[in-house]
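note to self — DONT lose this again. spent like an hour looking for the file last time. sequence + predicted structure for the chain T wanted, 362 res
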Amino acid sequence: MGLYLRKRGKMVLKKKNREEVRKKKYALWMKLWTCLEKYKKVLVIKCDNIGASIFHNIRQALRPFGAVIVMGKNTLLKAGIKRRMDEPKPTDEDCEYRKTTFKPAPELQKLIDVCEGYLGLIFCNDKLSEIKDVLKGFSCQKGAKIGSVAPSDVFIQPGPTGLDPKQTAFFQALNIQTKIVKTQIEIINSGKILSKGQKIGASECALLDKLGIKPFVFEVAVRNVYDNGVVYSPSVLDIKKEEILEKIKKGACYLTAVSMQSGYPTSLSARQSILSGFKNLVAVTMNVPFDFKESKSLKATESKAKPKEKAEKKEVKKEIKKEEKKEEKKEEPAPVPDALEGGMSLFGGDDQSLNYIYSPKT
């Protein structure tokens, strides 16, 4: 006997098989309820076009983190979460069991709103960013399917295809230029078959299958993160603790600066205000015959440092004077030759003859 019975032209499941399906469904709900009670953080992952073998490897990789994966359709998981949120009634079959574990949890409605498509729920309490990094290492490469949406652009590179000349119709339908070389079809120029978001047709799918091309790579991607009733983007997990601390420090510096300039005291500016007040008190005691415990020690250190400063200043002054004397010696004019001192001119005569030649006419 098969799994189905024909009744009035319709295929109907047997009663035994219906009960088995209902038991499996309820067992999945029980697992989901225990995870919701035990864990407070959930990673909602996208599972489209991912095989069961990959999820088996993911389960093994997540065991050191203590994480649990619950897989299923969105309708099944939504129904299980809603069942957990509803208060048990006496007419329910599982009323006695649910009374012991029921707790009102209206925040789970946010998790229901996020459940879309074929998905998985990874339950954990910490190390969310590390779990996300582990999931990045799992992916699979698959071919195109008729009716599905292309997740990325697909191009065909020029070169021999290995197909016989009778199959040129596939290339002509997609406007791809070809030629026949040695009884084989060869692509002349690279062509774009599919663009991102385009619905895959029969001709594109047949051509990619004939060429043996599997263009799409599917990864286990994290859609959303549920954390104690709050849903946020997975990009938040990429932020490191050091970056958060740096931003907090910058904000604290800005707040202290504003409070110091405005004169409005805050817990952040208290330290700076105390230091500035202490400096003002010490400055006053330096010129007034009044001391206190902290100012005495500062005065003592200053008095010890003064003689050293004076000696250093004297040495600096001496060096400056020496340098000035050296510069003065360098700037003195060169001595005049003896021939010029005796009144002789450069041309062999005396200065009077030169004066006579160049004297103006009266």
